[in-house]
Amino acid sequence: MLNRRHLLAGLAAGFSLPLPAFAQETVPVVASFSILADFVREVGGGRVSVTALVGPDGDAHVYSPTPADAKAVAAAKLILVNGLNFEGWLPRLMRSAAAKGTVVTATKGITPLEADEDHDHGHDHKHGHKHAHDHGDHDPHAWQDVGNAKIYVANIRDALIAADPAGKEAYTANAEVYLARLTTLDGEIKAAVARIPEARRKAITSHDALAYFAKAYGIAFLAPQGVSTEAEASARDVARIIRMAKADKVPAVFMENITNPRLIEQIARESGARIGGRLYSDALSAQGGPAGTYIAMMKHNISEIEKALSAGPA
User: Fold this and answer.
1) Which of 2, 22, 54, 237 is the most buried (most CB within 10 A)?
2) Considering the entire predicted model, what is its pTM?
């Protein structure tokens, strides 16, 4: 370290001392909800500053933006959204904030599931049932299939490179490492499902958020609410789920972190199914909780599902 005498000597000799390097300015990114924000942080690393509009344990289906959200959107260079009509409140926020950032839909390239089809996860759509709330034609919960999560990550990588070409090498390397971790995660989920007796691979959740999980991993889910939590389940919906749970001998029901537990408690009580653990469907937990990242969320969920469905008669 230069002492005072050396500093003065250098100045007297007319030499200029090297200036400290300034910290790199980060790319301001807004992600519509916590799971998407986690993907951005994994790919962006230290080159990005990320704001999640809907934070941990928040319900994006019924979210009301705040003035702070408008400020973040106005300042963002990149705005990452899920798409598939998941963020119905976002267009108005974008207009009110006079957003100038590039909007990128993270589900681009994903084949969406139809929200009004029977995906073999318990909805009686073929008998004319359709939920009151309309998310459009598509189920927006594509991240519940880890294979789709890889597409999210690739889209985010490409969007960050376009917004910050100097970071291409870092974004590419970060994405490669994270994609490898997702491949491992996908294998772990499949192995856990394989350990569950085939006849017990069925469960009940609060709302229809796990159709992609069901299709990818082979567990059937019943749900009294549709793909959105905005429309409350009718008494007929609840009675139908209870009848199906009894007839199919569904082993367990699961509460979700974004929904009121009373409905699931009623279904468990009247169907005889055991209450399993809490699942994280549309939002992460707070940092330090059981689902603070996407990978932690998926590991937590499959652990709770395997434990409940493998536990013997309800």
Assistant:
1) 54
2) 0.84
Give the separation between CA 256 and CA 280, rounded to whole angstroms. Answer: 6
95-141 pLDDT, tens digit each: 999 999 999 999 999 999 998 544 334 333 333 333 333 445 899 99
Residue 3 is which amino acid?
Answer: N
What's the burial of 247, exposed, middle or buried (CB within 10 Å: 0-12/13-18/19+)? exposed
- Given phi > 0 = left and psi -120 to 50 = alpha, else beta, which region is 136? left
220 touches 214 (CB < 8 A): yes
- Per residue in 41-85, pLDDT (tens digit) is 999 999 999 999 999 999 999 999 999 999 999 999 999 999 999
- The alpha-helical segments, DSSP class H, found in the chain are 4-12, 34-44, 67-75, 90-97, 146-163, 168-195, 211-217, 235-248, 262-271, 294-309
What does the alpha-carbon distance between residue 158 and residue 140 come to, in Å, rounded to a whole number? 21
Q: Residue 68's closest CA among 88, 86, 54, 57?
A: 54
Measure the CA–CA gap between 229 and 140, rounded to whole angstroms. 12
Taking alpha carbons only, the member of 138, 47, 40 closest to residue 80 is 40
Q: What is the mean pLDDT of the chain?
A: 86
Give CA separation, 117 vs 96, 127, 216, 275, in Å.
35, 11, 16, 27
CB 97, CB 191: distance < 8 Å:
no
Neighbours of 117 (CB within 10 A): 13
Residue from 314, 304, 280, 106 nearest 189 by CA = 304
At 25-34, the pLDDT tens digits run 999 999 999 9
CA 204 to chain centre: 20
Residue 186 has pLDDT above 50, yes or no: yes
Q: How far apart are CA 275 and CA 268, in angstroms?
A: 6
* Cα–Cα nearest to 210, from 201, 200, 222: 222
What is the structure's pLDDT at 312?
66
